[in-house]
């Protein structure tokens, strides 16, 4: 098959990482993949390094004529079987071009919040395939009236070759971070904001540190509550055992320095990519039982699902995970779980299977108005 992926967001987001991993997986399965991406953005940089053909373009919004020029040029040259989009501002351009030129369009929605009323109604019906990235997200769309037959679930793929257990890299990273080689490291990777559960996690981790002297915390990320988090951690008796790295574009090498990953969100998450990435690296996961996060791990086998914001429950779970044999057992089970359900080759095969399955003919595009967000 021939695919033209269009993803011109420059940001480093979960949707961008999904875009990269799926394009790489399809190219690895010998499909022809070309991409339109923003120059200097994560998508362009990562795919160029992996040998995928990248063309530069940028949609500032759904009506941006500068975005349409490279899209139309490449569609006419490549004649792809499918146009693939991940970002709301490109939904309508892909649908307009696809319907005008008779090319099928596959769209991914990475957020559970509703689109604007017309877009929420029309986009799943006009796309040849419309994908949610979790069962939780799919149900949210069904609850808003999208017909069940129009929403498929396809999970985020991960690269099992780059995400792998690597003790040597773990030792090097710990040395770089000034972490003791024998430390038990609980890691967090994500946005530093209250809704992500960082403050209950800090409280639970500090309580566990008071009991387990080998326990340290590694914080990856930045956000509006970073200053407050730093201040609260600095006021703890265990302040010296917290490491704040700031935002990193690629957390891959840091997983090898972790003994466990915490995913403590208070608000529902559509998915939970960092949970899958950590398990691929044989790092067990402690996660909140909210939204689509529960779908990212094998509860009580590759990690634990915990009540969000319950400091005592999180403290006790962290202490249970301080047992080396438990971590090793869960870590190995986690990589096997990810290999079965989230490996790039597995997701690419599922994607192609869904695209090849018979489905209703696309509806004609009439009176369409841009407005997805």
CATH topology descriptor of the largest domain: Rossmann fold
Indicate the CATH class of the largest domain. Answer: Alpha Beta
Classify the secondary structure makeup into a structural class: alpha/beta
Largest sheet: 7 strands, parallel
Low-confidence stretches: 361-373
Number of discrete domains = 2
Order of strands across the main sheet: 3-2-1-4-5-6-7
Gross morphology is elongated
Q: What distance lies between the first and last C-alpha atoms, to the nearest angstrom?
A: 29 Å
Radius of gyration: 21 Å
Q: Round the mean pLDDT to the nearest integer and report it.
A: 93
Q: How many extended strands?
A: 13
The helix/strand order is EHEHEHEHEHEHEHEHEHEHEHEEHHH
The oligomeric state is single chain
Share in β-strands: 15-25%
CATH architecture of the largest domain: 3-Layer(aba) Sandwich
Number of helices: 14
Q: What percentage of residues falls in helices of 4 or more residues?
A: 40-55%
